[in-house]
C-alpha cells in the first residue's frame, strides 16, 4: 500500500514497521492534499476499515458524549474503533473541508435517533437530520453533530445493503 501511495503522489512520513512496544505494523502517509493517514496491517477481515481519529478540544466531554454509543453504535463486528485524540493544551481545532462524516450502521434508525436526542440534550451536539428515509433512494438515516461539531450519520443496515445491491 505504501508503494501505491508513493506512485500516486503521496508522501510517506513513517515507513512501515512495528509500533513501539507492540506487534502491529503501521505506516503513516499523506495524500497529495497533505491529509495524513495511518495504514495498519492486520489479519484477514471482511471489513477493511480500522478506526477513525477525531481531534477534540475537550477529551472528557467527548468521552462522555460517545460513551453512550460504545456498545450500540461505535463498533463494527468488534473491529472498528472511534479514536478520540486529545493533545494537551489544545482546546480547539479548525475543521478542514475534506472531512464529511462518519457513517455507522444501525438496525433501528428511529430508536438510535431517540438515543441521540437524549444524549444531545444531556451533553451537547445536535441532530442535523431527523430519522427517516432519504428522498429518491429510501435509505433511512439520522445525522447529528457531536459537541465538537463532527458529523455522524447512522444508516439503516438493511437499507444500506440494498443500496450496495
Topology order in helix (H) and strand (E) letters:
HEEEEHEEHEEEH
**Radius of gyration of CA atoms, rounded to a whole number:** 18 Å
In percent, how much strand structure appears in the residues?
Answer: 25-35%
**Major sheet strand order:** 6-9-8-7
Q: Which geometry do the CA atoms define?
A: globular
Structure summary, number of beta strands: 9
Helix content: 10-25%
Mean pLDDT: 76
Please tally the helical runs, counting DSSP H or I stretches of 4 or more residues.
4
Query: Distance N terminus to C terminus?
Result: 28 Å
As residue ranges, the low-confidence spans are 69-79
Protein name: VOC domain-containing protein
Organism: Brassica cretica (Mustard)
InterPro entries: Glyas_Bleomycin-R_OHBP_Dase, Glyas_Fos-R_dOase_dom, VOC_core
Pfam family, one: Glyoxalase
What does this structure look like?
The radius of gyration is 18 Å and the shape is globular. The longest helix has 15 residues. It is of the alpha/beta class and 165 residues long. It starts with a helix and ends with a helix. The strands form three sheets. Strands 6-9-8-7 form a four-stranded mixed beta sheet. Strands 1-2-3 form a three-stranded antiparallel beta sheet.
Quick take:
With 165 residues, the chain is of the alpha/beta class. Helix content is 23%, strand content 33%. Mean pLDDT is 76; it is low at 69-79.
Question: What are the SSEs and their pairings?
Answer:
Elements: H1 2-7, E1 11-18, E2 25-30, E3 36-41, E4 51-55, H2 59-67, E5 81-85, E6 102-106, H3 109-123, E7 126-133, E8 140-145, E9 151-156, H4 157-164
Parallel strand pairs: 4-5, 6-9
Antiparallel strand pairs: 1-2, 2-3, 7-8, 8-9
